[in-house]
Amino acid sequence: LADRMGASHSLNTPEAIVYRGRINVDALQRALRALIERHESLRTAFIIVNGKPRQKVCPVPELRVRQFDLRGESDPDFRAKEIAQRDAVQPFDLAQPTPMRATLLQLSDERGVFLLTMHHIIGDGWSRRLFYEEFAELYRAFIRNLPNPLRPLSLQYKDYAVWHNACDFAREESYWMQRLTGVPEGVALPFDFSIRQKREFLGASESLRFSPELTNAVRELAQRHGTLTSYVMLTFFKLVLYHMSRQSDLCVGLSCANRGHPEIERLIGFFVNILPIRTRLSHEMDFTELLCQVVAATTQALEYQDYPLDLLIQKLNPPRRSNRPPLINVVYGFHDFLDLKLDAGASPTGAGDPGRSPHDFVVESGWTFSHETAKFDLTLLVTDNQTNLDLLLEYDRTLFRPETAQNCLSTLEELTRTVTQQRPPNRQ
């Protein structure tokens, strides 16, 4: 739908990884080709047949890695970020394989940037982690003239698609229809600007990092209640939305990996589903009561996570408007894995290691892109990087000012600090 509305770039998932070392471009090219050959999703075109979208698995296309030598620039990092940002919003032609681009930017003799931009239709966050893990294995093998070390896949994404389309979702449908009876039409957020006639997917983002102390306090709170950090943060987010909207019946979309079957854990593809998490709040409700409600609603929702959101929207048939997302306008996601596992060194023992190659490299850092698109009114992504909780709030900039997004994050942080500092009641 976004592609047909001219907003395909809103579903681009760009990544820029700064590395130290020297890359063997031929081995890099071979590793990418091996991945495209291995995962049919990476060489799938999406075409319209009789008005309906169809997947078309293609022969392995020639994906050439673009290269830019920026060593002569006065500020190579600044120039590289300009190129990366332009690449991030460049739309793909989904009718052609593959909706993925790879670029190398040489900053100095021993430092560079690897850009990888994929369209969300062929991969999700789990897929990116898997992509980098397998890419590193392939690259390490190819720079040492070793064969492909990866085991063949027993399934492909099309096999999952056939299975999923043949599923009888009567049980799941019954649950969701009952659960969402009378659900409000999204969260009634106080917008800074009037809603435009045409939805433009224009977005921006604000970020906030919890201190290690506050992060540990959140984890301790979750442990005290016998639940997960992700559920605690969703509860805090619900409280902030309640304060913003004064809406007691809140339904927030939960982004879930939707990989409950072991057979699909090693597949690159788009499996993510959005689960409507509905809770009811009141002024008299304390945090513990709301947390229990969020945990119960989320746990139940995950039991029925295979039921796709688009099918649910069809069945519920909420009011449709071209300038508003149906049913869900606020989404929450939580990541507790490290997305980047790209280190291609043979071992950490240094240059004297006989297993090392001149073309080993290690990741120095990643760049955060400014989000210029928004699929929903608000999307909160919380990432647990072991030391801190990183919060990224993506917002529709045709509806909100940056200060509003900043205040939302600040309120969430203040609320989290207040609740975690409260002493638990003494048990007799």
Question: Can you lay out the helices and strands and say which pair or pack?
Answer:
Layout (H helix, E strand, L loop, with lengths): L11 E10 L3 H14 L5 E6 L2 E6 L8 E4 L6 H14 L10 E9 L2 E9 L5 H18 L14 H10 L3 H10 L23 E7 L2 H13 L4 H17 L3 E8 L16 E8 L6 H17 L5 H8 L13 E6 L25 E7 L10 E7 L4 E8 L5 H20 L7
Helix pairs in contact: 1-3, 6-7, 6-10, 7-8, 7-10
Give the SSE order as H and E letters: EHEEEHEEHHHEHHEEHHEEEEH
Distance from N terminus to C terminus (CA atoms, Å) equals 58 Å
Beta strand %:
15-25%
Largest sheet: 6 strands, mixed
Instruction: Let me know the average pLDDT.
Output: 89
The residue ranges in which pLDDT falls below 50 over 5 or more consecutive positions are 346-354
Number of helices: 10
Name the helicity range.
25-40%
Structural class: alpha+beta
As laid out across the biggest beta sheet, the strand order is 7-13-12-10-8-9
Which overall shape is indicated by the principal axes computed on the Cα atoms?
globular
The whole-angstrom Rg is: 23 Å
Number of extended strands: 13
Describe this structure in words.
With 428 residues, this protein is an alpha+beta fold. It is built from 10 helices and 13 strands. β5 (100-108) and β6 form a beta hairpin. The chain is globular.
In short:
The chain has about 425 residues and is of the alpha+beta class.
